[in-house]
Amino acid sequence: MKIYENTGNKDTRSGFGVGLTELGKSNPNVVALCADLTGSLKMDEFKANHPERFFQIGIAEANMISIAAGMTIGGKIPFTGTFANFSTGRVYDQIRQSVAYSGKNVKICASHAGITLGEDGATHQILEDLGLMKMLPGMTVINTCDFNQTKAATLAIAEHDGPVYLRFGRPKVANFTPANQTFEIGKALHLQEGTDVSIIATGHLVWEALEAAKVLNEAGISAEVINIHTIKPLDEEAIVASAKKTGAVVTAEEHNFLGGLGESVARTLAQHLPTPQEFVATQDTFGESGTPAQLMEKYGLNAAAIVEKAKKVINRKA
Amino acid sequence: MHEINFNSMSTTQQLEDFVSQVRRDILRQVHQVNSGHPGGSLGCAEFFSVLYKEVLQTKETFSMDGKEEDLFFLSNGHISPVFYSVLARTGYFPVEELNTFRKINSRLQGHPTTHEGLPGIRIASGSLGQGLSVAIGAALTKKLNNDKHLVYTLHGDGELQEGQNWEAIMYAAGKGVDNIIATVDYNKQQIDGATDDVLPLGNLKAKFEAFGWDVLEVEKGNDIEAIKAGLEQAKSRTGNKKPVVILLHTVMGNGVDFMMHTHAWHGKAPNDEQLATGLAQNPETLGDY
C-alpha cells in the first residue's frame, strides 16, 4: 500500500484563498466577488492586494451571481465566494439563467459545504448542492479533498472556459496530496491499487477512504481507492475499469445519497457494467448542530462507515 | 472601428416609419405562432427604435465581449418580439429570420438567449429580475477596462416586484455605478391586471431617489422626440457617481387601438381578423419580412 502522510491539518477553504491570491498576481482578468463573508472564504489577501478587482456585494447573493455573469462580458473571470448553501440553493435560478444557460465564465466558489460546517446547524449545512449543480447543463462540478488539491483546483478553473462550481469546506482536515500538483479537471486519481473493492470518494471523505483502506488491508481485504474530485464531467472510464477489476464499489461523500457522487457512479455502472454498490452518504436527511467529528460519526461519514460498507458490498458479490 | 448605429441622422418621420414597421413585425411574429407578448412589445417599439437607431454606439460586427461600445440588456425578456424586430432591422441578423420566431430549431427563442448564438443578445432573460444585476456587472467590467461606453437596460414595471432588483438598485447607488442608464417600462400593467391591483409599486420615483439614483421621468414614453430627449438627458447625467434611471411612461399595446390601455394583450396573440386590423393601422414602410 502507498503511504500518505498528513503534512498537517489545514482547511480546504484556505487552499482556495491561497490559490485566489496566486491568481490575483498571475491573471489580471481574475476578479473576486463576495457576499459579506470575505474572512470565512479566505479572500482577504486577494482583497488587500487588488482592491480594484475585489467586489464586496453585501448580503445579496442573487445580485452577486448575476453581477458575476455580467462581468464576464468584457473578458473578466469572476470568482464568487460565499457558503455553499448561499452559492447554490439560494441562487439557483440566477445560476441557471444568467450563468449556465447563458454560458458565462463564472467560477462559483463555495465554502462550508456539507455537515462539517458544524455548530451552525442544518440551515447552513447544504447536503444537496452537488445534485443541484450537476443537473445544470454545461456546469463543471468539483469537490476537493484537501488544502493542496483545493489550491490546485482554484488555479485550474481559471484556465477552464465555462461555468464551474468549486466546493470546499470549513474544518481543518488532513493535507496529504502533493503541494504544487497539477489539477486536471475530470481526471480521477488512483490513490491505492486494490482487487477486492473499489472505494470511490470525494471531498473530505477521501482521507477517510485511505484510513478505511488501511483497516481493510489489516483484515486481508485489498481496497482500491479512487479520488473523484470532479463530479462532472465524471471520469467514467476510471470508474468502470476499477469496478471491472474489483467487482464491488463503495462511494463516499459528504452529501445526500440522492443526487451526489454515488448516484453518478451508479448511473455509470448501470449503463456500462452493473456492479454491486454501497453508499456512504447522508440518507435523505438534514444535518444538525455539533462538532464536525461528532456529526461525521453520527451520520455515518467516516472511515469506520466505509469499512462497514466495504465488507457489506463484498458479501454481495455474485 | 465602424459605428453603424450612431448616426442621429434619422428624421422624426423616418423613425415613425421605422416604428410602424416594427409594430407590423411584432404583430406578425406573434400571430404566426399564436403565442408571444405583443402588449409590452408594442409599448416599447418607440424606445427600442430610438435606442438602436439614434443612441447606442455599437460596432459593426457583434461580439459577446462588447468592448469599446455601448451595451444593452433586456431584463423583461418576454418582449422579445420588439427586440428581435429592431435587432433584425438594424442589421444584426437577416430580417427573414423573424419568420422563425418561437419555432423549432430557431435562434429566436420565446425569450432571448445567447444559447443559439443570435447576434445582439449577451445574456438570457425571461426569468425576471436579473437584468439589472447583469448590467451592473458589465458596467463594472467597463470601468475596469477603462471603457467609457455606457450600459443601457430595460425593465418591466411589474418586474420590479422581484426582490433581486432592489438588491441591484441598492448596490448600483451604494457603489456609484454611474455608467449605467436603466429604463423602466412604466405602463402600470402586468399579466394579472393593473400593477396597482396586483401589487402596488408605490411612488417609484421616490423609491429610486431614496436608494440614491438619479431619476428622470419621460411622461410621453411613446413619443419619439420625448424619448430621444430623455435618453440624451440621461446620458448627460452619467459619470456623476449616481446610476441613472428613466421612468418611461408608456401605453401597453401602443399603436394598435384595441390592444391599448389594457393588460389583456400582455401575452396573447391576435387572430387573423385582429391581425388585419392591427396591420391596417400601421402601414408597411420598410417591407414586411
Task: Characterize the structure shown.
The complex is a heterodimer of chains A (about 325) and B (about 290). Chain A has helices spanning about 10-25, 45-50, 60-70, 85, 90-100, 130-135, 145-160, 205-220, 235-245, 260-270, 290-300, 305-315, and strands spanning about 10, 30-35, 55, 75-85, 105-110, 140-145, 165, 170-175, 190, 195-200, 225, 230, 250-255, 275-280. By secondary structure, chain A is of the alpha/beta class. Chain A has two domains: about 10-175, Rossmann fold (3-Layer(aba) Sandwich); about 190-315, 3-Layer(aba) Sandwich (Rossmann fold), CATH 3.40.50. In chain A, the strands form three sheets. A seven-stranded mixed beta sheet of chain A has the order 3-2-4-5-7-6-12, with helices on both faces. Chain A has a five-stranded mixed beta sheet with strand order 9-11-10-13-14, with helices on both faces. In chain A, strands 1-8 form a two-stranded antiparallel sheet. In chain A, helix 1 (about 10-25) runs parallel beside helix 7, helix 3 packs parallel to helix 5 (about 90-100) and helix 9 crosses helix 10. The longest helix of chain A has 15 residues, at about 10-25. With about 290 residues, chain B is α/β, with parallel strands linked by helices. Chain B has ten helices and seven strands. In chain B, the strands form two sheets. Chain B has a five-stranded parallel beta sheet, with helices on both faces. A two-stranded antiparallel ribbon of chain B has the order 4-5. In chain B, helix 1 packs across helix 3 (about 45-55) and helix 3 runs parallel beside helix 4 (about 80-90). The interface of A and B includes residues 53, 71, 73 and 74 of A.
